[in-house]
TrEMBL record:
This is NAD(P)-dependent oxidoreductase. It comes from the Bacteria. The lineage of its organism: Bacteria, Pseudomonadati, Pseudomonadota, Gammaproteobacteria, Lysobacterales. Residues 3-232 form the NAD-dependent epimerase/dehydratase domain.
Length: 312
């Protein structure tokens, strides 16, 4: 296939391009000018440096590429995860404006399939249950998290509601593995070792992770799968009160301290508290059935004692 990947040098974009080229696809990677251009050429991909915010440039890039599939992997994430909330408005704007430009150009050029990266950790589900693909985004989440969820939800609706395009929404869990924050030498590991990461309140928010290579495999499978929504998460959704200590043990770091919600509001804000108290894990049942998705066990997962409550 001819495949156009926007955000081609991101944590998922780059390994995805590597695999697509290895599988024999004709790949065009869209990225900002800089070192990413050489990385993509080294992998054997063609490169375009169109700015996602420039609708005319995006239209020309897709027209020149004439792809069968467009994959939107655009993200605007900071190098330091401590800056995630501060950077979120830029990321939200990228999805709202850059994503709209990419989708509009794909419609105009007659692209047959459009695959978009969404989030499997902003989903709404009753406490103690996992979110499936019918779940909506948490539009009522506080601050920048809520704005991000609303923009992503509207983008999902636009992709799935495009009559001329087979739309695929991939709701990924938190990425871990090579090139991500969550690895033994990654940014989050450094924060945990330095005592900068704390469990807030009861730590009851359930997180769903996915290894970056498993996310790549699912994305490749989505090129020919039934259109629709898929949760791309592993089999080990865990509350923050469990996965954070397990992660600390995995990287041989001190166990994280606990702080009250009241104290956390002072340094983490409403959004940081939300991440520790309100996130909902997701079910991967549909991805397993229709994508042949087979995620590996979470690298630092802990075995619950017999009879202990688990989310599932």
């Amino acid at each position: 296939m001819r495949i156009f990947v926007a955000g081609a040098t991101g944590a998922l974009g780059l390994p995805l391009v590597r695999v697509l080229v290895a599988l024999g696809h004709d790949v065009v990677g869209m990225t900002r000018a800089g070192a990413g251009v050489d990385r993509l050429r080294e992998l054997g991909a063609k490169v375009t440096t169109a700015d996602a915010f420039d609708s005319a440039a995006v239209r020309i890039a897709i027209d020149v590429a004439q792809p069968d599939v467009v994959i939107d992997q655009l993200t605007w994430l900071p190098a330091n995860p401590a800056d995630i909330i501060r950077s979120m408005p830029d990321d939200t704007r990228l999805h709202r404006e850059g994503g709209a430009n990419l989708l509009a150009a794909s419609r105009d050029v007659g692209v047959g399939r459009y695959v978009v990266q969404s989030r499997g950790f902003y989903l709404d589900a009753p406490k103690g249950h996992l979110a499936d693909e019918s779940s909506r985004m948490r539009y009522d989440a506080p601050g920048e998290v809520g704005e991000s969820a609303r923009v992503l939800g509207a983008y999902e609706d636009d992709v799935l509601g495009s009559p001329s395009i087979d739309g695929v929404v991939l709701r990924y869990g938190f990425f871990y593995g090579p090139g991500t924050w969550y690895r033994p030498d990654g940014a989050v590991a450094a924060q945990v070792r330095n005592g900068e990461v704390k469990i807030i309140g009861d730590g009851g928010a359930v997180w769903s992770f996915v290894h970056i290579d498993d996310a790549v495999a699912a994305t490749v499978a989505s090129l020919t799968a039934q259109p629709g929504v898929y949760n791309i998460v592993d089999d080990d959704p865990l509350p923050a009160s469990e996965w954070l200590p397990a992660f600390a043990r995995w990287i041989d770091a001190p166990l994280p301290m606990r702080v009250s919600v009241k104290d956390a509001l002072e340094f983490a804000g409403e959004e940081g508290v939300y991440y520790h108290t309100s996130l909902t894990g997701a079910s991967n049942k549909r991805a397993k059935e229709l994508l042949g998705f087979s995620p590996r066990p979470l690298a630092w997962k802990i075995q619950a004692p017999s009879g202990a409550r688990r989310h599932g």
